[in-house]
């Protein structure tokens, strides 16, 4: 296997692992191929190799791929270095209790924002746009918009050269539209998603920052539109910013976790 071919194979395998991880119920071969842009035979060949390595499992009854046991073992070994969710769990729970909405922690992974923690609020009507493991491109959903908004301008420009959000997410995610929301997010300090991902489901998010001061994740809340009226959003924004500030301090090691 030469260097170029080997690198391509690794990148394809990684993209398929991410595709499978995005749905806890499992992903068919056809769906995995669609999500990664691979042909179905190529996707099946790589998925089968990952299964032999223990990184994936195949549910033969439903015909779907699931994350495998070897990933659990590898993840448990990596957890002490990367378990941001445990670091922030009580803050996310407190945010859900204070707002009544579903509250989330997500982390940046390259050009994506990945939900790693969900805590339910007390309000009975909920939005299910986000689950643990759900991925969105930066700029889509409130958490990803919050992260994108606080990158350096040059990084934002480079991102838009790589990514065309409008292709999948429609005209509301054209570059000009997203840049307008970036400006609004910077002005307010937090991002607002007015049902741009799912009709009737609103979200708000605030970025958290790593030890270098770069946006590495986000705290967010989602709920039904009636819970995000103009008069309530400033208070929700204040609670989000407080939670994001506390999580940032923990990530940066300024204060210990309670």
TrEMBL record:
Keywords attached to this entry: DNA-binding, Transcription, Transcription regulation
The protein's name in its UniProt record: IclR family transcriptional regulator
Residues annotated as domain HTH iclR-type: 7-69
One Pfam family matching this protein: IclR_C
Ranges for domain IclR-ED: 70-253
Transmembrane portions of the chain: none
UniProt keyword Transcription regulation, yes or no: yes
